[in-house]
Structure formats: structure tokens, C-alpha cells
Amino acid sequence: MEKSKKPVSQHISDFLDWLDIEKGLSVKSQQNYHNFLKRFLSWLPQQNLQTVLPHELSPDLVSKYRLYLSRALSLKKSTQNYYLIALRSLLGYFSEKEILSLAPDKIKLAREKEEREIHILTLEQLKTLLEACDISTFHGMRDRAILETFFSTGLRIAELISLDREHIHFPKNQTDELETTIKGKGGRIRTVYFSRRALDWLGRYLDKRTDNHNALFITYRSEQKKTDPRRISPRMIQEAMKRCAVKAGVSARLIHPHALRHLFASDLLGQGVDIRTLQEFLGHKNIAATQIYAHVTSKQLRDIHKKFHSGKRLE
């Protein structure tokens, strides 16, 4: 390890290049890391440390920064963690480039209360949501196909939006499912699976398409005239899901794209799928990212145990 003569702030550009080239993160992810690190860099001058060098970073300094995030900015612990993860990644960069600095594992993430309430969409609520889609309209049929695809594949919203028609090759056998390869978060390649049910709804949706746009999921500026087809945006999907939630009488806070990814994961775990297999389905690089779903299942089991086997019958 060698000591760098450049202040931490002058390493940021190289760090972002490292995220791009060696870690394969998307442009959006790089921007997020940069924005979170800007907070740290703007805090350093307040401590008269604007020229702090990598090897001068210390646990005490990190502790003061954490207090700043918590007390001065009043950030929730979950939000604090975004800033801490960005800083920890910067330390990981220093370590990989053999630049003397604080070890990444010296930054511990803020722990949220384990008993915080977890709101998970249920299968019954999903059924109600699906039935609320007005399939007599093009956009309603599209929304139904989107929801079915989310639940079948466990895709992230960015992954679903990036799907093209060429990804979907309907099997000749009407009972077969479809597996297709996608490029997920961090440029990682994985296989996702479309159930026969999801394919049926995709087929019905595509039958209503009159355009040649390559995107699988689109929106028309005019639904009646079917003009100006464009790839659907994350905001459009979120708004469509909220509209369905209102019709279905389901709490809007439960209905968002990631909720269906949660339901996909918890349903597989509930059916006995092991955590490592689930990691592959979800495309997580680190098993720790998959553990949250195991926690959700554990909480459900704990609630069942408390209700039916608390020992009260012995009293």
C-alpha cells in the first residue's frame, strides 16, 4: 500500500471510472454514487479537512460524519446508508488500487429497528389488482401484461422497461414456459422465466399492437389513434399501478414495481426455494441483498407461531 499525495476529492473522477469500467455499473448508478459522495466532500470543509488525504481518513472521522447525517440532516437510517455505502465503495476503490486508507469494513451501516412494520403485497391483493385492469382498452391490457410479467419474472423496473419484442419468442407448445436472457443491474447477465400465464397475457397485449416499435412495452400519445408509440417510462408504470390500486381498493403504498419483485421472492421462499437459488432468480451479486426476503418470511413464520403456538393453551 502506498500513501497518495492527492486529497480525497481529487480521486473521485478515477473512482467513477472504476465503477464504470471495472464494476460495470450503469451511468445512473455512477451518478447516484457521485451525488452521495458530494455530501461527504461538502462536509469535509466544515471540519477544516478539505485537503484530507486517503490515509488520513479514520474511524473517528467516519463517526463524526455519521452523526452529521443523523443529527444535522435528520436523515432516516435507511437514507443514511446510501451515503455510507457510497463512502465505503470509495474505500473499496482505494483498497483495490493499493492506496493506503481506512478499510471498507470499518464503515458499518446504520441498523434499523428489526421490528419495524413490513408491508408486503399479498397474493389475494395481487389478484384483486389484476382484475382491476380495464382490458377493454389498449393501455389496460398493457398494464395487465406488465403486472403479470413482473410477478412471473421478478424483474426490476429498469429491466422490464428495457425488454424488446425480440426477447419474446412464444413456444410452439402451448403448455411450455419461456426463458430468456437479459442484462441486469451492473451489466450482469441472467436468465428470467415467463410463465405460461404471463405469456398468454403478453400475447393478448401484443395482438392489440399496430405499430412496429421494437420496445415490448410502449405507450401511445393517442390510444384511440395509436399514434406516436414510445417506450414506456418508469413513471408511467408507477402511475398505471396506482390507478389500478385505486380501482382495486388496495392501499397505494403497497402498489409499486418493487412490491411485485418482493412478492415474487417471498412466494418462492414460501414454496421452499432456497436462498441461493432465489439469489440467482433476482440477479443479486451479493447474497446479503437476498437476505431481506428471508427476513420477511421469518417474520411471517414468527407471526403464525405467535398466533397458533404461543403457549397460551397451557395456561
What would the keywords be for this entry?
single chain; 315 residues; mainly alpha; DNA polymerase, domain 1; hpI Integrase, Chain A; 2 domains; 50% helix
Q: Given the structure, what is the number of helices? A: 12
Average per-residue pLDDT, rounded, comes to 87
Main sheet strand line-up: 1-2
Oligomer: single chain
Structural class, from secondary structure content?
mainly alpha
Characterise the protein shown here.
The chain has helices spanning 12-21, 27-43, 59-72, 77-96, 123-131, 138-153, 157-161, 196-207, 234-248, 257-270, 275-282, 291-308, and strands spanning 178-183, 189-194, 218-219, 230-231. The protein is mainly α and 315 residues long. The strands form two sheets. Strands 1-2 form a two-stranded antiparallel ribbon. Strands 3-4 form a two-stranded antiparallel sheet. It is elongated, with a radius of gyration of 23 Å. Mean pLDDT is 87; it is low at 114-118.
